[in-house]
Amino acid sequence: MADKIASPKGTEDLLPQDSYRWQYVERKALEIAGLFGFKEVRVPTFEHTELFNRGVGDTTDVVQKEMYTFDDKAGRSITLRPELTAGVCRSVIQNGLLSTGVLPIRACYVASCFRYENTQATRLREFHQFGVECFGPKGPSADAQVIGVAYNVFKSLGLKNIKLLINSIGCPTCRKKYQQALIEYFNGFKGDLCETCLTRLEKNPMRIIDCKDKDCKEIAKNAPNILDYICEECQEHFDGLKHNLDLMDISYEIDPTIVRGLDYYTKTVIEFVSTYRGENVTICGGGRYDGLIEQLGGQPTPALGFAVGIERLLKVMEEQDAPFQPDNKCFVYIGNRGQAAADRSQQLVDALRKDGFWAENDVMDRSVKAQMKYADKIGARYTIILGDDELANGKGVVKNMASGEQTEVPLQTEEFVEAMYGLIYSEMTFDE
Fold first, then answer.
1. Span 116-153, pLDDT tens digits
2. Is the same domain home to 299 and 340?
3. How far apart are CA 406 and CA 382, in angstroms?
4. Cα(342)–Cα(336) distance, integer angstroms
5. Contact at 8 Å (CB) between 329 and 122?
6. pLDDT tens string 180-197
7. Does 70 share its domain with 27?
8. Which residue range is the domain that position 378 belongs to?
9. How many of the other CB atoms lie within 10 Å of CB of 211?
10. Domains in the chain: how many in total?
């Protein structure tokens, strides 16, 4: 026997019995995004490495440490996407969407991402995100509406203890003064900063605030506050965001330590946190990136968005016993005795499937007893067993597996399907 091959470290299989949870979350997220006017976009799994170097930022952990980058057979540097925003921006520019005159452009997605990280319970090397990106509006009402998408998704999924944290990191102009203040502050702790933060000190000192190193986090606690340095325009935008969140009855806390881990953010930055194993974990992050489209070669265009880690969201939901929509169950299992009955069951399940029912019959050559055990394991709502007598009489007996009630039904295809519809209607309650 050949040796077994395991999945790569930091990846997980989605098994058939668990897929309904993912489908439920993804469907709910896309549905609510649609209420805000967002439509799905799909971009390539890999892009030219330059896109992420320019877009995400070459001082970020993502670019410096975490990207899966390789040369293709033509010698071009290619990277598996570590996030979706840069790729969606590239798509918007490349496909001329900004030239249509129809603004805002609202795009949403569910897709996989890849980062070479130290794996943890809620941090994988291949992970999945739901996110939205909005291009065109510059006012704070758009920020509040984008936040509203995430807020309504979490509420609809039954998430508990949700907290929205907001901050402003200003624009490139006012941020210069803040960065200079950070350099002066952190210069006093050079001997205590981690090696990565020492390289950030001159290039992008704001990244130090986002460092996960314990000593760096402690030093950053007393760093200058960005909100003391933002310009009048950025302050007005931040005040407008708070006003619009109040109008939408979305509560929030101001957290000046939120700077996000990617270089493209400007003005508004946000995080949603919830409880997992007794601690607050970030389940959503995002904000404005008004300069990114221009940075990637497009016309200057305000933009904003967020992303939700689906694996982390699911783990939080499971721990909090959030209600998932129940998995679909088999509607009817048609068992058989003998080849003639097997042929007839094949015809009947095919007819039921064409009418939208989940129907199954035996494909494993099992005994009738084993067929019924299987029907029970897959949660079949109804069962029927066909044999020579049933075929000769043109009638069979359908059993309701929950109540035990039995009903005789015709075996002619159209009449059989109609009879199954009749069973549904006869057993319906007002709750259904």
1. 988 876 789 999 999 999 999 999 999 999 999 999 99
2. no
3. 9
4. 5
5. no
6. 999 999 999 988 999 888
7. yes
8. 332-420
9. 19
10. 2
